Amino acid sequence: MTEGERILLSHGSGGRLYRDLVKDVFVTAFANPVLERLDDAAALTPQGRIAFTTDSHVVQPLTFPGGDIGRLSVAGTVNDLATAAARPLALAAAFIIAEGFPLADLRELCASAAATAREAGVPIVTGDTKVVERGAADGLFITTTGVGEIVVAHELGSAAVRDGDAVILSGSIGDHAVAIVAARGEFKFSADVRSDCAPLWCLVEAAVDAVRAAGGSASPDGAEALRFLRDPTRGGLTTVLAELAEESGLGIEVEEEAIPVSPAVRSVCDLLGYDPLTLANEGKMVLVVAPEAADAVVAAIQKTQYGREARRIGFVTAAHPGRVALRTPFGTRRVLDMPVGELLPRIC
Amino acid sequence: MTQADELRRLAADLRAEARPDLTFMEVCGTHTMSIARYGLRELLPEGMRLVSGPGCPVCVTAMADLDRVVALARLPEVTLATFGDLIRVPASRTTLAAARAAGADVRVVYSARDAVQIAADEPDRQVVFAGIGFETTAPTIAASLLEARARGLANFSVLSMHKTMPLPLKALLELGETPISGFLLPGHVSVITGTACYEFLARDYGVAGVVAGFEPHDVLRALLRLVRQTRPAIEIEYGRAVRPEGNVVAQRLMEQVFAPGDADWRGLGVIPGSGLALRPEYADADAAERFPVDLEPPLEPAGCRCGEVLRGVTDPADCALFGARCTPEDPVGACMVSSEGACAARYRYRGIDD
To answer: In the 3-class helix/strand/coil scheme, how is chain B assigned residue by residue?
Structure first.
């Protein structure tokens, strides 16, 4: 195949063209021994408990400052695994491609996905490709499915959260959503904002190690101080906190001034009437840890590439169960609600 | 001095100087938001009330007008372009969001010029812009209409539901339902109009007015100026943006395209001369004329007190539906939908102990 070529319906036919596309584009980009066997299913040998997740990616535009749908599709699934404290073991990637899609673009996006997978230390071991008529899909959709090995013995989640636990945020919020909005060009403004799109396994691994090193737990696993992990994607930080409060039956209080928001994101939000706390992120993690482990976890995360701005932003409280309070710089406390309605479609 | 320190100092001055039983009304959605967001009511002296008036453009749009917007959106040849706030507002029987899901071509735009561009890009579509808002937005819509005409885009039209600010204030004072000691006058509107149009408040009704900016300290400073007036007068606190004569260029633009017409206000009814109708020379771009539709009589939602809220007679929290049957997720009335609505602002920024 030469440059300038486009995807044809017959690329999805399962015949010779299909075989060529798989070998020439996908196997070349994602090169690893399991994928190269081209079996219908990949055989894996996981250790212990596994985490399993899937995520479809329909972002528009396909390429934006700070990332593209390839990077996003790998980071999104790696991060979902990371929220279960799972080291990514293998990914599957399914591509739905519109007829006429430029082959060069497909190669580029696959190269980006491959680079992100290498960065996260996970192979893409199997996949699928469908081609649909022009107009039946907008360019390219990617679904990635991931399997990961859980590195802690206890159950993470809202049920593990306790009164007094610390709430930690790994960095500034709103960058992904604002970068996408700016890249779409609908609002005729330029903003110097890059998507935060990134795989966060290293960050979570650092948090797990820090919790273990800080000790304080009698169990052999020693990681019980790590309670809850979630990545604030669609719905933003507000939704993660509101869901946690609702699911745990505890309250959460966060400090507005402690939540990092870049000046560029803040000005775009002022301009368009968005609340940065409800905007999507693709490279951030919310961690809830026992209070005695909080400083060690923040320090450990700050040493990782995507966690330099990590901060403690609040705490879990038995007061106001089920609700999230935001403490404003003026000392008043208001309720944080989940956002309503259509904000930004096709963001991830 | 930090902003919080300054707010505390202004609040202390207000407490020291205000006489009891003062009621001030704000008539601008952005003020409504700012007051709620920064919890300014908590800082006011006891006995001072701050009520919201008819300042949120979406909220004051009458049900019959909303019904017309939905009816136009449903016409197969029409692409309805609108600001996002209008999408979820309940009309009598449905919403634009529901009409869109059922197949109507509804597009959210951030400026009327974007709607003109849609008309240019899609010459086979009839693009109707749902024109709501006060003097702040009307000049931009006038400009978009002139642009469409200059580009020869015959498929662009405007449904003008625009309103102007001074007359509803007069109507409120004539009604006399709420004892209003003074107005926090709108910042953005006054950038365009200047202040001469408010002089009648002080002259004819003995009611003070201060044009305020939108930062929390702007609002408190404006309240302090209202408190300190010995004779009712119209003043400008928002001097960094507002001049007494306003923006003459924008005024001319508005006058070129629009003439005063009747407007139907939720809560206040039809106020003659309080709207902006397209001048006869622009009748060909008047969507109401271009697309005559038969409308069923409007239906107001049972129990909704938006009308009273917009007159400052009922506090949002005193409506039986507030926060229970009526929330931003499942709104009954317009004041709970628009981000600038008195009910939405109060709900969104409610205290943790409320």
So the answer is: CCHHHHHHHHHHHHHHHCCCCEEEEECCHHHHHHHHHCCHHHHCCCCEEEEECCCCHHHHECHHHHHHHHHHHHCCCEEEEECHHHCCCCCCCCCHHHHHHCCCEEEECCCHHHHHHHHHHCCCCEEEEEECCCCCCHHHHHHHHHHHHHCCCCCEEEEECCECCHHHHHHHHHHCCCCCCEEEECHHHHHHHCCHHHHHHHHHHCCEEEECCCCHHHHHHHHHHHHHCCCCCEEECCCCCCCCCCCHHHHHHHHHHEEEEEEEECCCEEEEEEEEEECHHHHHHEHHHHCCCCCCCCCCCCCCCHHHHHCCCCCHHHCCCECCCECCCCCCCHHHCCCCCHHHHHHHCCECCC
State the count of interchain CB pairs (< 8 A) between A and B: 49
Cβ contact B352–A335 (<8 Å): yes
Q: Is the pLDDT of residue B221 over 60?
A: yes
Cross-chain Cβ contact B328/A340 below 8 Å: yes
- For residue range B264-313, list pLDDT tens digits in order: 999 999 999 999 999 999 999 999 999 999 999 999 999 999 999 999 99
Average pLDDT score, chain A: 93
**A320 with B339: Cβ contact below 8 A:** no
pLDDT at A218: 55
Q: Number of helices (H) and strands (E), helices first, in chain A?
A: 10, 13
Residues of B whose CB is below 8 A from A328:
38-39
Assigned token pair, B79: 């692409």
| A186 contacts on B by Cβ (under 8 Å) | 110, 114
The CATH number that domain A9-150 falls under is 3.30.1330.10
Compare all CA atoms of chain B with the CA of A341 and give the residue at the minimum distance. Answer: B329
CB contact under 8 A, B42 and A340: no
CATH homologous superfamily of B6-288+297-346 equals HypD, alpha/beta domain 2 (3.40.50.11740)
Minimum distance, in Å, between the CA of residue A225 and any CA atom of chain B: 28
What is the ipTM, given to two decimal places?
0.71
Residue A150 and residue A84 in contact, taking contact as beta carbons nearer than 8 Å:
yes
Whether chain B has a CB inside 8 Å of the CB on A271: the answer is: no
Q: Which residues of A touch B110 (CB under 8 A)?
A: 186-187, 272
Domain ranges of chain A: 9-150, 158-336
pTM of the full structure: 0.83
C-alpha–C-alpha distance, residues B134 and B55, integer Å: 9
A47 at interface of B, judged by CB pairs closer than 8 A: no
A158-336 CATH: 3.90.650.10
CB-nearest to A334 from B110, B329, B350 is: B350
The letter for the amino acid at A271 is L
**What is the percentage of chain B residues whose pLDDT exceeds 90?**
89
Q: Which residues of A touch B329 (CB under 8 A)?
A: 340-341
The phi, psi pair for A50, rounded to 5°, reads -115, 155
Q: Does B215 touch chain A (CB under 8 A)?
A: no
Q: Do the chains contact at B114 and A186, CB–CB below 8 Å?
A: yes
Same fold, A9-150 and A158-336: no
Which chain B residue shows the shortest CA-CA distance from A337?
Answer: B348
Residue contact B42–A332, C-beta within 8 A? yes
Over range B215-225, report the average pLDDT. Answer: 95
Where are the domains positioned within chain B?
A: 6-288+297-346
